[in-house]
Amino acid sequence: MNMEDLWTLEGLLLDKNNDGVPDGVSLYIDLPDNLYPLGLLDFMVRVGLETTALSFNFFEFTNQKVVMSFEKNETETRASFESGKLHIYYTSEEALSSLLSSIAGTELRENLVKDNAQSSITSISDIWTLSGFGYLQEASPQQHLNINIGCEKWNKQLFKATCNFAARLGLVSTSITLPIAQNKNAEIQFIIQQHNQSFIEVPKENIIQLNGSLDQCANMMEWLANERSWKENGVLGAWENAFHYAHFKNKEETMLEVKWDNPSEIELAEKHLESLANNQIQKVEVYVSEPLEIRSLLKNKWSEKYKNIQEITVRSSFKPGFHWIKEELIHQIPANAKKIKIKVKEHHLENSLELPIRWIQELYPIDAIIENETSISKENVQFELDNQLKHTYEVVTLLDDGTVYHLGSLDVECSKVPYVDGERFAAPTTSCIVFSSETGKAVMHFPSDRERFYQFYLTDFLPQLLDGIGEIKGEKGLTQPLFDQMEVEVWMSEEEERLSVNEERTSPLEALYEDIYFNTLDYFEDLGTKLIGKPYIAVGAVVPIMHVAKGENPRASIKVTKWHQLNKNEVKTKELFFEKNVPTKVRLEVNGHIDLWDIDELLTMWEQTKIDDTTVPNSVLVDYSFRGRPIHVIEKYLPSNEQFDNPLKMTLFKPTVLIECAHHPNEVSSNIAVHRLLERLESNNELLKKINIVAIPLANPDGHYLLKKLTKEHPEWKHHAARYNAVGLEFAHIRYKNTIFGESNVLPELMKRWAPDVVIDNHGIPAHEWVQPFAGYNSPPRFPVSYFIPSAKIYGIGRYSNELGTDVARENLEKIVKDMSEIYETTNIPKQNEYWRSRFRKYGHDWLPEIFPLEVHGNINFYKERIVTPTYSAVSILRYPEWVAADIISEVADEVVYGDVLEECVEAQYLFNLSILQTVSNSNVDMKRNGNTLYRERPLEITIRGEYI
């Protein structure tokens, strides 16, 4: 054997789990007393560099593979390695030190690694972070170590502890600058010096000082070598949390509180009917937004009361065309009918948000209703769009004998409601009375309860809110909310009916909920764009709370709580004082002010601040949400059972996939799906021999908490109010910023810790129709495409940068999509995808393909066009295109579903993730070396799919 064999599995390295990756060190160092060669520190940092995991058993003999021994020699200094024996012969300690440094590889070679990240130390808690040694400003696949450890006097305990510390430094690095002793030019200086007190300090950036007697320094170094960050179940830095998370207790202060009540639209209708009481009226059609039960009672009541009116019909003013066909025409369809044609007038109004096919949209899902109640299939219910049509709807049926039978026609009345931008408008259907007499037909309009409240909200309340917010400056509206929370509580008599088709329902109040929520966000986005040239995206939590109050007059209550400006405390541990080998006091710099604190006191303060101390087995607690809920991350890799391991190093040897779940908690399947995936990997870890998996099961615990509250009254609504964080912020937009919202820090921390090759973001879409009458009867105009109904049971979105690495990213995406189509082939997913695809075509794509886009790839829709791809800088592949190989979103129709439907969504998400894991796991990873730098080519070029597990 030669000396290079020492750094292999034939030498001192171990592969404990048989995956071909070094994950342990088997080395016993038989160090004589009073021998302190500084070159051994270089040797130890190289030991750490060569492995992904290690334990501190170098100085205790436990039958290690390699035994390192030292022998004084009068004539030569040399080393030999044979049969597990590393013999070191030396003439002097200085010569021995030089020899050990040369074995470690001090020779300088050209650095081929372009992305060589250097960490910094400004606080003692920076020494061990989630990403290794020091604080990294940006994520990188490389972490370089450039440190000098200086000490004028040693004892055996201190020297051994420093050797362990050096090994751990090497473990968390991918490249090292040697030597790490007597190197005054190193960027980080670690100084061990004599002092009458025992403390560690960081007096300046990148200077660490260990102060005390030799024995005290030895104890502190041993503590430091063995300690972990509090995020990894250690102690280091835990005391800082008492100040980091002071915003948990945000003072609640009412900023604005208003109430609204009005007569019901039934009262308004009756006033109009009274005005017709003395006239001879042939026919009256009353349109009100009320449940069928109440409309039936009204018909009987008014027919009895107004004898002068020959015929009274009471119809719904919410989706009137749909209800007209469902409640009246279906029962008139002849038994021998084989086809229904619904002629629909094309919708065109200047500056209107309405789509030309708006009257087709309002019929959804009438074809499936007809199929359920007649012998006519939904495919034989056809729409015809006609700009010249006399009526809004004309319905005819084709009989078996070829006869065309006219079922009826309907004219739908609309009002005109300004949109929040003050430039466009919506044209919601309105309540009204249409009456026919000898002189002709006339219409009396009166706004529905919902419209009157919305008009009040838009023209009266929002300006009051803006006045209450006051001057908007600095980060308000951008990273700091304009208000803390706004509860909009509404009581109205409206229809609430679960339909007989999939998850579909009739729910005018859910529609109002969606309008209040999204239109409020759009109001402030537009305001910011006009005032400062960029949208206000940090508004505050908008929480609509709707109550179905049959037969009651409409009323509402709105309460807004004030946002108290909060900035993230800059906390740094400058000095750490020890008693009896443990830290007891800490000198903290908080926003530039320095105080001495008792550590137990700070930890008690922290425990009293937290509102949730949930633990998740075998997880890393990366951060806390704004309201104080822990955000755990589960990391799956083949265990080595060593004391320490390094995720970044693992990614050098195997591809790593990061999966984020429940970013929007109302998208309910991904959390369950990822736990299913991880559980199945427990019983079959073949995949982990080829890949590392990092999962964020619940990225937004505050949103999840709100969802549980909202679903108590309306368990099947979409509940987009629980989509964002505790103050209504899409926290993805403020990642990589210095923020008080801990949920936004989790992904950036994991990018630093793992530098994953592939990032998967599991999301969801509504499982039933998305209706917003005051935003153009569609999903909000903030979206460039329509989410009015699902386009698939599950589909994917692939993201990539147009600036760098595009070819590799495109090719990777092609392979992932191809394999994903295959994994779904033997499931029920293709059938469900085709079902929803056909619905999406019929009600949208066939008429407006750009607004209702479809990109079909085999058994799955997969969107790669930029129009549906998020482009903000926090997107992983856009931020790091030089090393992220794929960045993929899943979208499954799971917004608040249950039972069998939820199970279908969970399995679809599970297979989506599994397919990507299997594809990535068979990609070739070739770890390379250049001097004391370990690296591999990035981005990963994905190859073929593996076998199913």
TrEMBL record:
Database matches in InterPro entries: Peptidase_M14
Domain Peptidase M14: from-to ranges: 623-721
One of the record's GO molecular function terms: zinc ion binding
Pfam families attached to this UniProt entry: Peptidase_M14
One Gene Ontology term from the biological process aspect of the record: proteolysis
Gene3D superfamilies in UniProt: Zn peptidases (3.40.630.10)
Protein's name in the database: Peptidase M14 domain-containing protein
